[in-house]
Amino acid sequence: MTPAEMERRIVRYGNLKPCKTAFIDAHTPGSDQKENFTIIGGGVSESPDQHVHISIPHGFNIGAAGQPPKCRNSLHSHRTAEVFFVLSGRWRFFWGRWGDAGEVTLEPGDIFNIPTGIFRGFENIGNDYGMIMAILGGDDAGGGVIWAPQVIEDAADHGLVLSQEGKLYDTKKGQALPDGIDPMPVLTAQELAAFPEPESADVVPNHVARYWDMVALADRAPAKVIGETGMLPDKPGFEVDFVTRASASGAMHQHNKPSVLMPVRGHWRVDWDGGSATLAPGDTMSVPENLMHRAQPSMTGDASLFHVIATEDQAGPTWVAQAG
């Protein structure tokens, strides 16, 4: 593969194209300044304005959210896995029907495999614009987002209506639901009762990995972070490994599925049969299946990256939090 061909599979941080109207809370005060990015796969955006950087199926989706201080992403749920790692900023993740069942604060490099089956949201509690990178299970990202009822109600007060097909319509722009299309119904009390309310102590130990803990475990070989035998045991349809300078191998290797490299710190030189490229934090590289390649730090200093690859496991829910 030529360098030009491979460059089309690299999404540079500085070239990310945001969508500011990706979801139903795009006009809701407190959530109206967030930017959403769809990097690999179709994602779960509800807006036709969302730009998809790489549409090649990988068995999972890669996205990102960028938010200024005090900006919040509203309570929602997914039918498949949702994993975040903090690229920059300081973030509070919260969950539960009203967002008060539990919470955890994440710093740069920390990763959170959010349990399926619970409402979750997050906000930038730092002092600067922050970015979190996301991995969503499955090529279709689970068929969309399930919103807490109050989010749909608040959005309607600010002109946004979501159709039962998962498409947004802005009444302030004169848009209306097409004939024969109903609005997205809010969940009933019976449906809401199926969403558990786990406390922080029930979630954090098996679903959050701290950056420096991963660094310590990756001192000789890449650390398995998410996987059946990982630090955060799960089988969400993909595996996540953490690689540092100490555990980066100079040996050329290949995978039978497309894989993704996502630097957290430092600059990484990726060599393959046909060329090389350098990645920086925030860049995302899709490595084709069966391509011999290797990734190594290209400069001195702290260096780390996440490696993501699909597995044969079903991308649906693999763990549901238990209340209490």
From TrEMBL:
Protein name: Cupin type-2 domain-containing protein
InterPro entries: Cupin_2, RmlC-like_jellyroll, RmlC_Cupin_sf
One Pfam family, short name: Cupin_2
Source species, domain of life: Bacteria
Phylogenetic lineage: Bacteria, Pseudomonadati, Pseudomonadota, Alphaproteobacteria, Rhodobacterales
Organism of this sequence: Roseobacter litoralis (strain ATCC 49566 / DSM 6996 / JCM 21268 / NBRC 15278 / OCh 149)
Domain annotation Cupin type-2: ranges: 69-132
